[in-house]
Amino acid sequence: RRWAHNIPSFSHLNTVNEEDLAHFSSILAPTSILSTLPSISTPADDIAPYNVDWMGKYHGQANSVLRPRTTQQVSEIVKYCAQRKIGIVPQGGNTGLVGGGISLQKEIVLSLGAMNNVRSFDPVSGILVADAGCILQSLSEHIAPHNHIMPLDLGAKGSCQIGGNISTNAGGLRLLRYGSLHGTVLGLEVVLPDGTILDQLSTLRKDNTGYDLKQLFIGGEGTLGIVTGVSILTPPAPQATNNIFLALPHFDNVLPLFQIVKRQLGEIMSAFEYIDRTAYDMGLQHGLGPLLSADEAGGSQCFVLVETSGGNQDHDLEKLNNLLESLLTADEPLINTGVLSQSPTQFNSIWALREGLTECVQKEGKPYKYDVSVPLADFQKVVDAVRERMISKGLYGDHAISKVMGYGHVGDGNLHLNVIAKHGYRPELEAALEPFIYEIVADRKGSVSAEHGIGSMKRDALHYSKSDVSIDWMRKIKQVFDPLNIMNPGKVIP
Ligand code: FAD
User: Fold this and answer.
1) ipTM surpassing 0.95
2) Any idea which architecture 240-358 has in CATH?
3) For the FAD-binding PCMH-type domain, which residue ranges apply (predicted)?
4) Which residue intervals of the chain bear CATH 3.30.465.10?
5) Rounded distance, CA 249 to CA 18, Å?
6) Which pLDDT does position 2 carry in this prediction?
7) How far apart are the CA of 358 and the centre of ligand 1, in A?
């Protein structure tokens, strides 16, 4: 297979000059007196946070950040950029993990943060229509009094925006239950790369009128247009939620356990999350848990969190208690021990351990993150193979890679493989990891990106998961929408 890091050429693009800034000002003026941030920022202001990603891995070079408040303003900015051939990087909450929202050269950053109004919510159908810049958590809070929840949930919910979620086709903790955004998004409003507003903000559950264009923008990572509005189906809040935390003697038990849990819990199972021993111990070191005493957790190679969401607390608890009892009293138990949350506080602390891992990884050093899909049976083999590789190269230990760990959404076949460089990113570490990891994923017919997207990190690794024919048709689609290649250039398409 081919592997080379190609530096994309941006010679077709112009850098923003004073005249351009004056024009952007005329589009964006007047600044709302309610807004705490100016609608345009340049290096004279503090634009550093827009030029670095959440991990501190990707450093951008944008010299201007625009914050439109309306779709019309986005359209006018894009129209002007198309005329002047100025590159645009749409940016949401900047929590993306593949360097997709960072300007590679001098493209402007178009931040959606000031477009944060809920347009409508129908408590009968559960259909929510909102600006793309709404923070995921604020949308959850908006619909909670109407007994609805967002169909997706992720650790970054306090910062990520619904437009960013859609553009990365974010998965997260509820996908097992409510499916992907390709199913729950009913319509989108998008500003296309020539400035045209594509209004497909449908609130219909069923609409079979030809090509479903919105699907191209779900997971499009801002390369085909800027999502400005979203119509999404939100499910009713479950009447009862519970979780259990299970300690397993070894990884081989995860698959049979998954089968038993699915069979016994049936329709109420809403999450099945995996945490390996290294990740669990790291969580404890950073103050998460402990969910089990050291004795109980001792001798366990990995852990599983199971969540149920149902309609009747007594019924669900009975099912969970029966499950735990049968697991613990089996002739050859698959688990060492398990706890059932007894209160909302315990329920939250079980989830806090799983959700807090990404933040803990960040505190340990600089993470190389590989969010991959592989067959369930291979989860731990992939993690072990990477650790062995780093040991064999003399790159394992506090001087280089200090930890290799796996956790993730087992129920969706999605492994978050995290490799921590204690003292920072170094080219020789990356060279030892890539393309090695992409090759072992491809050998298992997995995907190099289960949910974080491609961005700039995996652009040159796309062919490990997509055929030449698929990539060729992606290029053709990009050409149709964005012939000038101004929309998030250098991302996704190799
Ligand atoms: P950004 O990071 O700002 O942008 C991401 C990409 O989308 C970029 O390419 C950008 O150009 C584009 N984009 C953003 N907004 C728009 C728009 N309005 N129109 C067009 N393009 C746009 N991801 C998961 O899938 N599942 C998880 O469980 C998960 N957990 C996470 C936990 C933590 C702690 C963190 C930090 C991240 C996690 N992520 C997860 C990754 C990330 O949060 C998601 O990818 C999220 O959906 C990105 O949203 P954002 O608003 O921050 O987008």
Assistant:
1) yes
2) 2-Layer Sandwich (3.30)
3) 58-237
4) 118-233
5) 64
6) 67
7) 14
Ligand 1 close to Cβ of residue 180 (< 6 A): no
Give the residue whose CA is nearest to atom 13 of ligand 1: 164
- Over residues 125-138, the pLDDT tens digits come to 999 999 999 999 99
95 Cα nearest atom in ligand 1 = 52
Question: Is any ligand 1 atom within 6 A of the Cβ of residue 132?
Answer: yes
Cα angle 406, 408, 410; round to 5: 115
User: What is the tens place of the pLDDT at every residue in 373-409?
Assistant: 999 899 999 999 999 999 999 999 999 999 999 999 8
Domain with CATH 3.30.70.2740 in the chain: 365-452
Residue 102 Cβ contacting ligand 1 at under 6 Å: no
- The alpha carbon of 341 and the centre of ligand 1 are apart by a number of angstroms equal to 30
pLDDT digits (tens, 9 = 90+) for 104-123: 988 999 999 999 999 999 99
Mutation test residue for ligand 1: of 91, 359, 493, the one with most atoms within 8 Å of CB: 91
Question: At 260, is the secondary structure helix, strand, or coil?
Answer: helix
| CATH 3.30.465.10 is right for the domain spanning 118-233 | yes
226 lines ligand 1 (CB under 6 A): yes
| 112 CA: nearest ligand 1 atom | 18
Strand 185-191 and strand 226-233: the pairing is antiparallel
CATH code of the domain made up of 365-452:
3.30.70.2740
Strand 401-409, strand 269-276: pairing: antiparallel
Q: Indicate where the chain has its CATH 3.30.70.2190 domain(s).
A: 240-358
Taken as a whole, the chain contains a residue count of 494
